[in-house]
Amino acid sequence: MSQVEIKVNGREYRVTCEAGQEDRLQKLAAFLDKRVSAMAADLPDISETRLMLLAGLTICDELFEARERAEDLEDAGDTLDSETMGGAARAIDAAAKRVNEIAEKLDN
To answer: What stretches of the chain adopt beta strand conformation (E)?
Structure first.
């Protein structure tokens, strides 16, 4: 296991991740930081906890929409080959798993 220093909304956090995942974690943190910072600018009086919650819910909403689109594509699978559909589903599932793992690590 490795530890990575990430920065979100001006605060630094030490997060544990699997060896070799440090760069990915930094990219994910940068993505989250960008979202949180934009929301903080729009909602200056919101607490840090609510800000993080709102950012997490917004990102989850986007993930769910992507899953729904993938399901719609599966329903229209006549125009797509099964290899393409399977790859998209695996990518979405892997992304969801990573989001859940990061959320668990942030809780610790």
So the answer is: 2-8, 11-17
Mention every residue, 6+ apart, whose C-beta is less than 8 A from residue 81: none
**pLDDT value at residue 80:** 58
Vertex 105, ends 56 and 39: CA angle to 5°?
A: 25
Under DSSP, the state recorded for 59 is H
Kindly state the tokens that stand for 18: 């699997």
- Crossing angle for the helix pair 22-42 and 48-75, to the nearest 10 degrees: 110
Q: How far is residue 29's CA from residue 8's CA, in Å, rounded to a whole number?
A: 7
Q: Give every CB contact of residue 95 below 8 A, 6+ residues apart in sequence.
A: 63
pTM of the model: 0.64
**Beta-bridge mates of residue 16:** 3
Q: Is 63 exposed, middle or buried (0-12, 13-18, 19+ CB in 10 A)?
A: middle
User: Over the stretch 36-87, which tens digit does the pLDDT of each residue have?
Assistant: 999 999 999 999 999 999 999 999 999 999 999 988 877 775 565 666 667 7
Query: What per-residue confidence (pLDDT) applies to 77?
Result: 57
